Amino acid sequence: MQRFEEAEMEPDTLQASFIPVKLVPELLVTDINASLRFWRDLCGFRVVYHRLDEGFAYLDRDGAQVMLEERGRGRNWVTAVLAAPLGRGMNFQVSVETLEPILEALGSVDWPLFLAPEQKWYRTGEFEVGVHQFLVQDPDGYLVRFSASLGQRLVQGLR
Question: Dihedral (C-alpha) 31, 28, 40, 108: value to the nearest 10 degrees?
């Protein structure tokens, strides 16, 4: 059963120039096409390779990588009952140069945000690291945090 929207699909063969990162989450999804519309079309990931017969796609966005696999197709490793929203208790941080293109794409289809864009500073010892960030859920409820750097500064009040 081939359900990918092939007009938008990239190679089904891994390109020699691709460099996989050392930790890549593999998300079980309900509908691979709905997930690809979110991750690829709205959030700017590209399909590095896929296995159409298993409902599988390996995605990359400037070194942020994720695998999507449709539940009930291929070999799924399920350790407990899967109930929506999936991925409870975790979020996937994706570092980007700027939030605007993603926010515009999500806004164009009225995709709801879990957390509106904010500027936040996190303490890392005597410095703070600043980010412009927002959170959004994918079609299965996985929480994704897009984050653009604001740089770093000394913690206020330290000498």
Answer: 60
CB 149 within 8 A of CB 131: yes
What gap in Å lies between CA 142 and CA 74, rounded to an integer?
Answer: 21
Distance CA 86, CA 30 (A): 10
DSSP 12-75: SS--TT----S---EEEES-HHHHHIIIIIIT--EEEEEEGGGTEEEEEETTEEEEEEETTSS-
Mean confidence (pLDDT) of the chain: 90
Pull the structure tokens for residue 146: 């897009």
Give the integer Cα–Cα distance in Å for 4 and 77: 22
- The two tokens of residue 125 are 């010892």
In the predicted model, is pLDDT for residue 115 greater than 80? Answer: yes
| pLDDT, tens only, 42-76 | 999 999 999 978 899 999 999 999 999 999 887 78
Return the domain boundaries, the chain: 6-154
In contact, 110 and 127? CB cutoff 8 Å: no
pTM: 0.87
Report pLDDT digits (tens) over 10-32.
566 667 778 899 999 999 999 99
Return the CATH architecture of domain 6-154: Roll (3.10)
